[in-house]
Amino acid sequence: MFKNQNAPDYTLLAVILSLLLIGIVMVYSSSYVWADYKYADSFFYVKRQLLFCGVGLVAMFFIMGVPYGTWKKYSKLILLSCFLLLLAVLIPGVGMERGGAQSWIGIGAFSIQPSEFMKLGLIIYLSVYLSVQQKYITSFRKGFFPSLLLVFTAFGLIMLQPDLGTGVVLVLTSMVMIYTAGARLSHFLGLAVLGIAGFLLLIISAPYRIDRITAFLNPWEDPSDTGFQIIQSLYAIGPGGLTGVGLGNSLQKHFYLPEPQNDFIFAILGEELGFLGGTFVIGLFMLLFWRGVKVALEAPDTYGRFLALGIVSMLTIQVMINISVVIGLIPVTGITLPFLSYGGSSLTLTLCSVGILLNISKYSKL
After folding, report:
1. Contact 85, 106 (CB under 8 A)
2. Helices 114-133 and 75-88 sit at what angle, rounded to 10 degrees?
3. Could you tell me if 53 and 338 are in contact, meaning their C-beta atoms sit under 8 angstroms apart?
4. Burial of 194 (0-12, 13-18, 19+ CB in 10 A)
5. Is residue 93's pLDDT more than 80?
6. Do 114 and 346 contact (CB within 8 A), yes or no?
7. What residues are paired with 339 via a beta bridge?
8. Mean pLDDT computed over 177-193
């Protein structure tokens, strides 16, 4: 393994901690009304988020000290474990259903979301595969198809839950990695045709997805049902103006925007902190992307470059999808905003991922 002579990228670390702090503040601000109504405890969600954050930070700093080559040794075991978890969640009595998706495994209040583990597990394995098989990636049979088969097997299991949002993030992240490895554009064009056909089939096969498309095209056609969430999101962002209505003063969190601490937390942030607050948060994400790409470009080996690229691509794609949904650019997908949205598995796995990225930065010539 390479000699560790450098400190981690402190700019990247500062961005991560800043986003976490903003996330904790916004989880409390967006959730205390609903938490007080549902649990008679206005701090219910933020206390749990602080717990998730604490566990995630401990994991991040621990992983930051583990040489990233370690994950290469256990990549097959990690991927196999992720597949077993995805299969386990589909077993009646084992998988827990929330919001119409059987995506969790757990006991009582403690639960994990296996699809979140798969995103990171697949990135680790693909990084190893692409670094070894990169010379064959231009061959459909030897390089492109085996990686594609692996990605879509994972996607298929996630869709059985179903969880289209997480599946899309997983596929797009994998495609970025495979394309960067040197796969032929003609292979992607053929894949795009099949992908569009498959995507249309997925939409047609589930009425609620058709409703989401319809609501996206014209949310005011059914403002009390399918278009309700996006309309309330836009009602939150609109009054925010340049500087917002003030931290804690959101109107939409008062039982208008459903569970605003989750996927639509950016709407409350935009309402309370305005255009300037939203721009500042987007700026932090852009800085994270820039530093992550720089870490990937300066990594000392091909495996490290693919691993860093995969992690930063996953986070960036997730941010782009979440914010696009909140401002009405794409249909609702159910994707959390990294570091900000309430949630245990998502936040913990995100922090584990950036822990690996920070470790790679120790070996990069930044």
Report:
1. no
2. 150
3. no
4. exposed
5. no
6. no
7. none
8. 83
Dist CA 328 CA 166 (whole Å): 19
Q: Which residues contact 251 (CB under 8 A, 6 or more apart)?
A: 236, 239, 245, 271
What gap in Å lies between CA 346 and CA 113, rounded to an integer?
8
Residue linked to tokens 């693919």: 306
pLDDT digits (tens, 9 = 90+) for 141-182: 888 888 889 998 999 999 888 888 899 999 999 999 999 988
Per-residue b/e over 151-161, b at no fewer than 16 CB within 10 Å?
Answer: bbebbebbbeb
Contact 144, 129 (CB under 8 A): no
Question: 98: which strand partners?
Answer: 101
Strand (E) positions, 128-192?
none
The whole model's pTM is what? 0.92
Determine contact, residues 20/312, Cβ cutoff 8 Å: no
What is the per-residue pLDDT for 1? 53
The Cα angle at residue 87 between residues 82 and 93, in degrees rounded to 5: 125
- Calculate the alpha carbon distances from 229 to 17, 265, 270, 319, 320 in Å: 30, 12, 15, 19, 18
Burial class (CB in 10 A: 0-12, 13-18, 19+), 11: middle
- CA triple 113-119-123, angle to 5 deg: 155
CB 268 within 8 A of CB 257: yes
- CB contact at 8 A, 342 and 53: no
The Cα 186–Cα 139 span in angstroms is 11
Q: What is the pLDDT of residue 225?
A: 65
Give the phi and the psi of residue 68 in degrees, each rounded to 5: -60, -20
Q: Which residue has the tokens 């470790």?
A: 359
Most confident of the ranges 88-97, 132-141, 346-355: 346-355
Integer angstrom CA distances of residue 113 from 40, 169, 228, 238: 27, 15, 27, 33
For residue 218, give the nearest of 76, 108, 99, 328 by alpha carbon: 328
- The tally of CA atoms less than 13 A away on the side-chain side of residue 114 is 32
